[in-house]
């Protein structure tokens, strides 16, 4: 059976949930082999083994991570040349898509982005136009490069060997032309990651100010949810940009999305419309967000949300 | 400093979009066409950099005849000239094919920076800038929330999953900008009048030395097998808060087994 390469998303060896999803998906398509770039591979091996990686290609070295995406694409291209895989799966994050894009051009392959499923014959399912249309596409040339959205597949453990294979690549001058000279990591909140969370609680302009996000965060915390924000809220500086949901923010597809004080502009809906269940709190009964609500309350979020938080707390005991 | 801005004409994002049943490409005739909103920020950034560093701003677009309107809009914002790649053979080009055409066209122009938007609101792939950088062998300074140029060094703040990176490269470089970077200007009446006289060159596939099999539906390395409209979401229930709105939601969530 041919290998299916999965590019590992990790923070210093801590493997992201999306990678366990991609390995689960890869098992249905062939023999999953992980590609780990950066430091901390040894810490990652256990998790990669747990989710079925038969092999783990490791490229460890600062030269692979100190430049904008191009070195990662060169490492992947080398592994593709050596292992002749049937497909390459990458997480559909901003950087994942760029890495996949460069890889596709490098190896002369087609690319499909934002897949929500891939069948054993490598047909990818995409959900486009804000979830209104389902498209099935296929790469018609080369080794398919497919980027898959987080939360598309339920991760299932299936232990495998995760045999480590070291990879070293002589990077081209072009790959090291854009150097990262500084890295600013925003404070981590201890909440689940936005794109991975089963529940997302979001706030918009209706929250009223940075302090207003307190009620949103409290609800998120009793539900074990991630916090999201509309662009109006991030642009106003009420909440950091990396929590923006929508066309120019993150795409989320949780089991439950709770929108508070968000009107439901098309650009916001583009990032959350495929959520399984949508709950809305908005004081304007005409707000377009109600059109996609499974359950909505017309009211002031400063009354409704704290009451909801309290009630959830009570019920959870 | 000379700058080329890549802009795309797209269907208005407020319009309902459909695919053509015959070849699964976007039905562009049924909706109004506008400049990709996210490319307005790229045009604005080029004009701001030009104000500081001089040089010329050229608008590059690949698309049907009608896409010339989008070049005019950018010229009316203040850009100097346009290049329009237009050819019947381009219909149905995917991102890989588009990047091949743009890279070839960029090869015919003089530039220190190429600036892209972050995503086209119709394709929504966010891959073309990285592909063009790959093809040109130029540094990729993408997802910029800030761009600074000093001599021949470009420094950007790159938006990341975890915060931001500072990234540095020498020109010529490929830049893409996010919508947080600036506030695009509106064309003035004077700008609109001036745009009518600004030069726009058209290029065909033959001009670029590209064969018909390298672009369009034939040269695209991904293909749509089938598509279907998803049944619209079932209308949910909406209640007015009578002092118990929070409790009502909690009941709903309990019924759905979320709590
Ligand atoms: C190119 C481009 C890209 C964009 N990308 C994104 C994106 O990625 N994500 C995104 O979100 N937007 C995006 N937008 C912006 C989008 O068009 C909207 O402007 C934005 O989503 C509005 O945010 P909002 O719903 O929080 O604010 P508003 O539209 O102002 O809505 C606020 C809502 O809060 C309600 N409200 C007010 N007070 C209360 C209260 N006390 N209790 C309950 N409800 C209350 C109001 O009734 C209203 O419905 C983009 C726009 C453009 C042009
Ligand atoms: N046909 C085109 N002509 C010119 N620029 C384009 C074209 N398609 C995409 N682009 C540029 O590439 C960016 C990203 O597009 P995409 O990868 O399709 O989401 C856009 O914001 C534009 O700057």
List keywords for this structure.
heterodimer, A: 317 residues, alpha/beta, nine-stranded mixed beta sheet, 9 helices, B: 259 residues, Rossmann fold, 7 helices, 13 strands, 27% helix, binds flavin-adenine dinucleotide, binds adenosine monophosphate
Tell me what you see in this structure.
- The complex is a heterodimer of chains A (317) and B (259).
- With 317 residues, chain A is α/β, with parallel strands linked by helices.
- Chain A has nine helices and 17 strands.
- Chain A is 29% helix and 27% strand.
- In chain A, the strands form three sheets. Chain A has a nine-stranded mixed β-sheet, sandwiched between helices. Chain A has a five-stranded parallel β-sheet with strand order 14-13-15-16-17.
- Chain B has 259 residues and is of the alpha/beta class.
- Chain B is 27% helix and 28% strand.
- In chain B, a hairpin with a 2-residue loop joins strand 7 and strand 8 (153-159).
- Chain B is globular and about 65 Å long.
- Classes of the chains: A alpha/beta (317), B alpha/beta (259).
- Chains A and B meet through helix 5, strand 7, strand 9, strand 12 and strand 16 of A and helix 3, helix 4, strand 7, strand 8 and strand 9 of B.
- Bound molecules: flavin-adenine dinucleotide and adenosine monophosphate.
- Flavin-adenine dinucleotide sits between chains A (204-206, 230-233, 244-249, 261-263, 265, 267-268, 271, 281-284, 287, 300-302) and B (37-38, 179).
């Amino acid at each position: 059976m041919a290998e299916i390469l999965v590019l590992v998303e990790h923070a210093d060896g801590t493997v992201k949930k999306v990678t366990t999803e991609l390995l689960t998906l890869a098992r249905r398509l062939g023999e999953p082999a992980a590609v780990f770039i950066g430091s901390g591979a040894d810490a990652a091996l256990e998790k990669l083994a747990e989710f079925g990686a038969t092999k783990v290609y490791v490229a460890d070295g600062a030269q692979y991570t100190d430049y904008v995406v191009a070195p990662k694409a060169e490492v992947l291209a080398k592994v593709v040349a050596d292992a002749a895989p049937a497909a390459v799966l990458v997480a559909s994050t901003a950087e994942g898509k760029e890495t996949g894009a460069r890889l596709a051009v490098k190896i002369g392959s087609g690319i499909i982005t934002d897949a929500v499923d891939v069948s054993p014959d490598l047909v990818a399912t995409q959900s486009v136009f804000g979830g209104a249309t389902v498209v099935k596409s296929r790469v018609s040339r080369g080794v398919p490069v497919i980027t898959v959205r987080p939360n598309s597949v339920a991760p299932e453990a299936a232990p495998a060997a995760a045999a480590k294979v070291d990879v070293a690549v002589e990077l081209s001058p072009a790959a090291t032309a854009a150097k990262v000279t500084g890295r600013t990591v925003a404070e981590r909140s201890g909440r689940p990651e936005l794109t991975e969370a089963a529940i997302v609680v979001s706030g918009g302009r209706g929250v009223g100010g940075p302090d207003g996000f307190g009620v949103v965060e409290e609800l998120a915390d009793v539900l074990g949810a991630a916090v999201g924000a509309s662009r109006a809220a991030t642009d106003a500086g009420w909440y950091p940009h990396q929590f923006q949901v929508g066309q120019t923010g993150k795409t989320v597809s949780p089991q439950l999305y709770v929108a508070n004080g968000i009107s439901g502009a098309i650009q916001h809906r583009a990032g959350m419309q495929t959520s399984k269940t949508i709950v809305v709190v908005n004081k304007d009964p005409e707000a377009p967000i109600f059109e996609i609500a499974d359950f909505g309350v017309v009211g002031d979020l400063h009354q409704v949300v704290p009451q909801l938080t309290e009630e959830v707390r009570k019920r959870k005991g | 400093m000379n700058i080329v801005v890549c802009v795309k004409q797209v269907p208005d994002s407020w319009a309902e979009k459909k695919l053509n049943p015959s070849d699964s490409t976007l039905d562009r005739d049924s909706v109004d066409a506008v400049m990709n909103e996210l490319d307005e920020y790229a045009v604005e950034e080029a004009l701001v950099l030009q104000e500081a560093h001089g040089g010329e701003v050229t608008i590059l677009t690949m698309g049907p005849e009608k896409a010339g309107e989008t070049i005019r809009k950018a010229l009316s914002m203040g850009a100097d000239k346009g290049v329009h790649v237009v050819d019947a053979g381009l219909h149905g080009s995917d991102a890989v094919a588009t990047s091949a055409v743009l890279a070839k066209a960029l090869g015919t122009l003089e530039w220190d920076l190429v600036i892209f938007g972050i995503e086209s609101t119709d394709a929504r792939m966010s891959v073309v800038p990285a592909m063009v950088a790959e093809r040109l062998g130029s540094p990729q300074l993408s997802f910029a929330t800030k761009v600074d140029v000093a001599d021949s060094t470009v420094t950007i703040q790159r938006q990341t999953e975890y915060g931001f990176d500072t990234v540095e490269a020498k020109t010529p470089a490929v830049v893409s900008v996010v919508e947080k970077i600036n506030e695009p200007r509106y064309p003035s009446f004077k700008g609109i009048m001036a745009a009518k006289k600004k030069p726009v060159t058209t290029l065909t596939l033959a001009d670029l030395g590209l064969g018909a099999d390298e672009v369009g539906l034939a040269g695209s390395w991904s293909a749509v097998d089938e598509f279907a409209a998803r049944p619209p979401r079932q209308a949910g229930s909406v209640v007015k808060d009578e002092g118990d709105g929070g409790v009502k939601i909690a009941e709903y969530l309990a019924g759905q087994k979320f709590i």
